[in-house]
Each structure stands twice: as C-alpha cells, then as structure tokens.
Amino acid sequence: MRRERSYEKFYSALTLPATVDAGKAKASYKNWVLEVALPKTEVTKKRTVKVE
Asked: Where are the domains of the chain?
C-alpha cells in the first residue's frame, strides 16, 4: 500500500456566519484529525419558555 503525505504548510480560510462567536472559535489538530469548535452567539441560542 502506498500513502502520499505532504509535510508542507497548509492554509485555508473561510467566512463564518453571523451566528458564530468568532472570538471563541477554537481548533485543534491531533492524530491527523482537525477539530473545529464554533460556538453560537448568545442571541442565536435556543430559549425555552414555559407556557401555562
């Protein structure tokens, strides 16, 4: 089996929607897996209202 690997730097950019709090965005790269966490802003979080 042949595997191709690149050891060069890689750069990618994307535009985040307005519902994402960009200041709290985090990313980690471990074991060849890139994990990105994009938390929502307080305005877009769901709210539960009890109706009687």
From this structure: 17-41
